[in-house]
Description:
This protein has helices at 3-47, 63-66, 79-83, 85-94, 109-118, 161-172, and strands spanning 69-73, 100-105, 125-128, 141-145, 151-156. By secondary structure, the protein is an alpha/beta fold.
Amino acid sequence: MSLPGKIETTANIATIGAAVLLSAVLIKVYLVPGLLAGKRTATQAADAAIGTSLKDRLPGIDWNRNGQTLVLAISTHCHFCTESAPFFRRLGDEAREKVKMVAVLPESIADAEQYLSSEGVHIDQVKQAPPGSIGVRGTPTMLLVDRGGIVTRVWVGKLDPQGQEQVMSTLLGRHAAGAPGRPGPASALTRPGDGLEAPARGRRG
């Protein structure tokens, strides 16, 4: 092979090698993180499923002593939470003897308590934690937890009257709509805009 031919072949091999290397870098920088993020999102969405333990995720709560605990994952910046405040007040008034209520907010405890007080919502305990830390992808979300710290019911989003009655029936031991261990149709609101507010970018959770 002539010298010019060898040079051309070497140049072609170098070009192909550079292209392969560049492709590998682009895949690592752009494609792989996206796939991993999608996997994390899917896992996070499933984290708050029935059967999940919150004992390690929310320390400082005496689940056994509480008997049943209703965890309200809300935020002071969530307008669906504010719109749900009348129902939260009803829960505090009517279900107080049956269940302990714990509010989980990403804001400081002082801000959270001020917000709950301004809305007239009775809460037994307030915890500061981002929603994602307990497997919640949007607010408001309610988790019914047994004395072992295990989630037994999940209600997502701002509930319509039928959904609210299902929650009350479950807490008070009355016959409830929906299959055992699953939220009824009216409470299965999972998309932002359907009574569920996704955590804002830049805030914890």
